[in-house]
Amino acid sequence: MAFFIGRDREARRAYGFDEIALVPGDVTVNPDEVNTTLQIGHVKLPIPFLASAMDGVVDTRFAIAMGKFGGLGVLNLDGINTRYEKPREVVAQIAAADPDTATRMVQDLYREPTKEHLIGQRVAEIKKAKVPCAVSTIPQNADKYGPLAQEAGCDVFFVQSTVTTVRHTATRYTPFDVTKFCKKMKMPVVLGNCVTYSVAVELMDAGISGLLVGVGPGAACTTRGVLGLGVPQVTATVDCAAARDFYFKKSGRYVPIITDGGMSTGGDVCKAFACGSDGVMIGSAFARTKEAPGMGYHWGMATPHANLPRGTRIHVGVTGSLEEILFGPSRLDDGSQNLVGALKTCMGSVGASTIKEMQLAEIIIAPAIKTEGKLFQKAQRIGMGKS
Question: Residues of 204-221 as b/e, b for ≥16 C-beta within 10 angstroms?
């Protein structure tokens, strides 16, 4: 439904996670018996959780740990890990930087050229641990880095930019050809990021194997402030899920959508799936793990941009191990740990045995969901009152 925001100017109402709630089902299911599998091309993940391709979150060690737990850590090929032989030492410099100089330090450190031999080396390090390997790059580098990663044995290739479309106009360089790239790659290609129905359909028509949904919701992203761009994740996910379902009816090919960013608690994750997502990509929650290279810090992928940074370095602290964040036992009361347990419990409560059934859960508009009856938590800044 659109509303007039001024004379002859309409705007559509959009919703974020804090404005909705899920309604318990008429039937409930044992949480231990639900199926949370995510399929991206030939790659099958036991849990539908992906770690964002941010240098403070994913390096080869973290990707291996994530893979062993059944998820997928995506390595950024445009970042520290392919510019330096010892990336953890460089990340430590960024983590130790003064807040006022952190962005400038990131920009300076990312001026070091990418070393192509490190692409194959990093992929090999992950594959040696016998877990799926996923890497990410910007569209400008996809044609160059894609074959290198493929030759090294990569399993899933992500192409990410702030806003992705099939039809990109440029005269000073050759635009990235999504269709041509997907045809030449022998592994699944996941593209992002997107927030609209029409673009989602066009990207699926181009041959992608997965779609990342979200512009600007990440904790370390400043796109919404710098550019004014973005659609709240509930509406963006619902719209892209509708595109996925339309495309499936039209073609018979199912392209999973992955809600990327804006989820800090198990409740946010559960709402993303109820809105139609097949998987979730998370940064800040995994940046808080002991295994993450950033030591409690992380920064957006566009933070190093030389002229217009659209990210910042944030401090989230180290609160537990990756196992605790994913599976518990939770030692915090704010919903930031045992994310898989939260998803399974919610699925059971709405009567969903599979993710596809979870996508059918009843949703209500409920802006009071986080404040109703929570006076003492808010006053004491505990539980749901911390944020």
Answer: bbbbbbbbbbbbbbbbbb
Domain 36-327 has CATH 3.40.50.300: no
Alpha helices, DSSP H, located in the chain: 60-68, 87-96, 102-109, 116-128, 139-152, 178-184, 197-205, 223-226, 233-251, 266-274, 284-287, 322-327, 339-350, 355-358, 375-380
CA distance 72 to 58: 10
Active-site annotation holder among 60, 82, 223, 303 = 223
Q: According to the model, what pLDDT value does residue 165 have?
A: 84
pLDDT of 329-360, one tens digit each?
988 888 899 999 999 999 999 999 999 999 99
Residue tagged active-site, from 133, 154, 221, 275: 221
Mean pLDDT, the chain, integer: 92
Question: pTM (2 decimals)?
Answer: 0.93
Mean pLDDT of 87-113: 86
223 catalytic? Reply is yes
Domain ranges in the chain? 36-327
How many whole angstroms separate alpha carbon 358 and alpha carbon 166? 30
